[in-house]
Amino acid sequence: MALRHKLFQILHPILTNRCTYSIRHFCYKASPFVEDLDKLNTKYEVSKDPEEWKYVERALPLTIIPEPVAKETYPSGWKPQTNEVKNRPYFIERTKNHMIPVYLDISQRGVRRHTLIKRIQGDINLFEKELVKFLQKESFQPIRSQVNEFAGYIRINGDFVNATKYFLEKKNL
Fold first, then answer.
1. d(CA 11, CA 119)
2. DSSP secondary-structure letter at 39?
3. How far is CA 156 from CA 82, 119, 122, 124, 147, in A?
């Protein structure tokens, strides 16, 4: 293969200067060996200075999500969950990011839309009745819902995510 490359350079000096000629190896035995990566040394510096380490800690992601700082109002309109919800017949636990667990499930190429309310604890049927009664005011058709007591979620046919979140914020859940 190398002989053919040399002959090409001798016979066609103009072409070899203007373009690069690549050699393709057709067998793994003909290809050149790879360098041993253990022999390569990467230079690095070890520092245990706390003054330098504080900048590294700022760049690292947090291992836990911090508790939100208690304020009267938040700029985004978000409200933390109150402690008085434990005395009620049902309770909706917030996610680890302190958000309300209400989701929109879109399937069948965007045709079918379901609202999912997860992490429901307590009397889930009472919560479903109150929610459907609230949502019925906004809909002309009857509200169809599916209650899964074992998994602790409710599936409602239609896009009622914003109305459900409004209902939960109004109830301080």
1. 78
2. G
3. 26, 15, 19, 13, 9
Listed by start position, the domains of the chain span 1-31, 89-170
Two structure tokens written together for 168: 């939960």
Neighbour-count burial for 3-29, b at 16+ CB within 10 Å, e otherwise: eeeeeeeeeeeeeeeeeeeeeeeeeee
CATH fold for domain 89-170? Translation Initiation Factor Eif1 (3.30.780)
Contact between 127 and 90 under an 8 Å Cβ cutoff? The reply is yes
The predicted-structure confidence for 28-76, as pLDDT tens digits, reads as follows 666 666 666 666 677 888 888 889 888 888 899 888 888 888 888 889 8
Structure tokens at 126: 């009472």
Which two tokens mark 145? 């819902």
Q: How confident is the model over 86-145, as pLDDT tens digits?
A: 788 999 999 998 899 999 999 999 899 999 999 999 999 999 999 999 999 988 999 999
